[in-house]
Write a structure and sequence with these properties.
This protein has 415 residues and is mainly beta. Helix content is 5%, strand content 45%. The strands form 9 sheets. Strands 6, 7, 8, 9 and 10 form a 5-stranded antiparallel sheet that branches. Strands 27, 28, 29, 30 and 31 form a 5-stranded antiparallel sheet that branches. The protein has a 4-stranded antiparallel sheet with strand order 1-34-33-32, with no helix packed on it. The longest helix is centred in the first third of the chain and has 20 residues. 49% of the residues are buried. The N terminus and C terminus are likely disordered.
């Protein structure tokens, strides 16, 4: 093979492969997937070796959605907003592909099977659940629902589940109402789908339902109902839930029994789970890495270290990819004013700080990790952090052989 052809084949392998791999690493629902695991285990581009090179690749003025996180599929970002406008952007450039005004508050949209499922609402619980074509926003069906627009839908097993005063399920294909669960005057929170069961927090207890709406079990291991009023995460037959009571719990999805309890001494919204670990951020100014099997704390990191003036930290969920935990954090004054906010990258094994980006006074929620980027939505904008554009590897003759230097930004063994 002639040298130009050899170089072209080599470059194609080292440059194209990571990009191609990232296209299958989607983040189609809030929390990454139907389990809300908060992890993208297929991502391989940003790692501990190159994370220091992360920078803002683009920023778009959109404003925060109620859940504040875009979803990603097929190279596109799908973004909700408090203004009720659905934005569809090219993930690589931030260019707007199309927008669609839906009204009300628009929670994080879900992308599944070429369709977008978007839930809007307002303070009067006058909401609408939409199914749209992902290609152009064409409306497929809509249903009026009792919703305030703060919660994102759960999509899977042929159904769409929304949370408001109770849980409601609809057919993915037609929007036909299928069942509801809970007290009309209660409070339900975002459900997760694990091992064929819909698991959700409903009015202070955890419940597991079949996709047909039949209750399998309900559990209230804590006497304080506030411990189960937030989104649950799930993995490997276990449901993980935080809350306002300063506890993080692992619940067996088969029967609702408690496997372990960990004390964080602060509010925990939702953990991320990957690689045998559970990652959480509490309002006590700490992020934690816990053993998935036992709940033992393996490391903790003070997210407010050196902050002046001191205050309570935000407790938004972290996100995991490729050995790194990305933590959106910030200092909140006693009067709840936002003082200073950051996006941190911590080593997943040790909790050591690997990278830090300032977000100013704008709070942000759980990052979306896909296509070699970390996307994060603040109160006024959507930002994309990524590595610098790859450079072709330098090649030089060493004796009678060519030696290729590594491309910046590619995963490799060691640093």
């Amino acid at each position: 093979m002639r040298l130009p052809a050899l170089l072209a084949a080599f470059f194609g392998l080292v440059i194209v492969s990571p990009v191609a791999a990232s296209t299958v690493a989607a983040w189609p629902q809030v929390g990454g997937d139907a389990r809300h695991s908060g992890a993208n285990v297929l991502e391989r581009i940003v790692d501990s070796c190159n994370v220091q090179s992360l920078g803002v690749r683009w920023t778009v003025p959109i404003g925060r959605a109620p859940q504040g996180a875009p979803t990603f599929a097929d190279g596109r970002l799908y973004v909700g907003s408090n203004s009720g406008v659905l934005h569809v952007l090219d993930a690589a450039s931030g260019r707007t592909i199309w927008t669609k005004p839906l009204g009300g508050r628009l929670a994080t949209p879900v992308v599944e099977g070429g369709r977008i499922f978007a839930l809007t609402g307002d303070d009067n619980a006058s909401g609408v659940l939409y199914a749209l074509a992902a290609s152009d926003g064409r409306e497929l069906w809509r249903r009026s629902v009792n919703a305030n627009g703060h919660q994102s839908p759960l999509v899977g097993a042929g159904i769409v589940v929304i949370s408001s005063n109770r849980l409601y399920a609809f057919s993915m294909d037609t929007g036909q109402p299928l069942w509801s669960y809970g007290d009309e005057f209660g409070v339900a929170y975002e459900a997760a789908l694990i091992d064929g069961l819909v698991v959700a927090a409903d009015d202070g207890k955890l419940v597991a339902l079949t996709p047909g709406g039949a209750e399998v079990w309900s559990a209230q291991p804590s006497s304080g109902i506030l411990g189960y009023r937030l989104r649950v995460s799930a993995d490997r037959g276990v449901v993980y839930t935080g809350g306002f009571d300063g506890m993080l719990r692992a619940i067996d999805v088969r029967d609702g029994s408690t496997r372990w309890t960990a004390i964080t001494y602060g509010e925990v919204f939702a953990p991320a789970i990957a690689g045998g670990m559970v990652y959480a951020q509490a309002s006590t100014n700490y992020a934690f890495g816990l053993d998935q099997a036992s709940g033992a704390i393996r490391w903790s990191y003070d997210t407010a270290a050196g902050a002046v003036p001191p205050g309570q930290s935000s407790n938004f969920p972290p996100a995991y990819a490729n050995g790194l935990v990305f933590v959106p954090t910030g200092i909140v004054a006693p009067d709840r004013a936002s003082l200073e906010n950051f996006l941190l990258a911590l080593d997943a094994k040790t909790g050591a700080l690997r990278w830090k980006a300032a977000l100013g006074r704008e709070r942000a929620t759980q990052p979306t990790i896909a296509a070699g980027h970390i996307f994060i939505q603040t109160e006024t904008r959507l930002l994309a952090y990524g590595l610098p554009a790859p450079q072709l590897p330098a090649a030089r003759m060493v004796g009678s052989n060519w030696m290729f230097l590594p491309i910046a930004g590619l995963s490799r063994a060691g640093c």
